[in-house]
Amino acid sequence: MPRTAPARPRPTSRANRTRVIRAAAWGAVAVLALVSACASPRAAQESAESATAQVPVSAAFYPLAYLLEQVGGPGVRVWTITKPGVEPHDLELTPKDLVDLPKMSLVAYLKGFQPAVDEAVAQQAPSAAYDVSAAADLTLGAPAGEASATDLHFWLDPIRYAAVGTALGERLALADPTHAADYRARAKTFAASMEQLDKTFATGLASCATKQLVTSHAAFGYLAARYGLTQVPIAGLSPDQEPSAKQLADVAATVKAAGVKTIFSETLVDPKFAQTIAQETGATLALLDPVEGITDQSAAKDYPGVMLANLAALRTGLGCS
């Protein structure tokens, strides 16, 4: 039986070849369009998230955290190393407290105020660490008779506090250049609010029966210096440093000689020595908050509120008109 030759494929015409090429091209365009349609929303979302992402920052204790919140605004997310209710001088850190430090774009701290924090930032976040000491203009030394030291409680002087806010605004601008103008604007607004607070204090303490400010520990030196008061601390710069019998006797003698009517204790410090002086001299015990942290016992929920409560306590305790 004869074999049948296989059929030859019909030659493709130029028109057919053109149609095939066009179909392939349109198919490629369709695929690209589909990929683009899927990718564009994701890219847009990522871009939007990048624009609204909060810069992670950390503060050693409350006054610096409040500053970062005010100057950073919605552009930052603030972690506070010292938890509410903990006396900052006594802070001890655990590994859990340090786990987020390396992730921070900025860590604001006050060198010498909390040795545990000094060590932690040096080890965990050296490139993000920012010591506010220089901006605070720390010019006051320790009370007489105390070992050489510098008073670090700058935030109780609204003008120094504003200066640190301005410095933090510049530091945030470096960390997040996209929102630099916003940080600088908020720092300026904060400085204006502190200037107003300063005027309120200056007016409120302009005329007082006594200028002797007797406090639990030497936290109010900058406040006293700013408004013409003389701080008479029972304990030194650290509230853990217990006064000697001679120091207690000297403070009691000052209270009697100056006719001081009020001894000021604090929220986070044991008031036993202030109570001792008050009982011995017949003075009244009142509360003056160093604003080192906000607790349920604080007179207000933030720095300005507590400072205004302090002013009211000072006016009553010092007999201001």
Automatic annotation (TrEMBL):
GO molecular function: metal ion binding
Swiss-Prot/TrEMBL keywords: Signal, Transport
Alphabetical list of InterPro entries matching this protein: Bact_metal-bind_prot9, Lipoprotein_PsaA-like, ZnuA-like
Family to which the UniProt record says this protein belongs: Belongs to the bacterial solute-binding protein 9 family.
Name of the protein in its database record: Zinc ABC transporter substrate-binding protein
Taxonomy, superkingdom: Bacteria
Biological processes per GO annotation: cell adhesion; metal ion transport
Pfam families: ZnuA
Signal peptide: 1-43
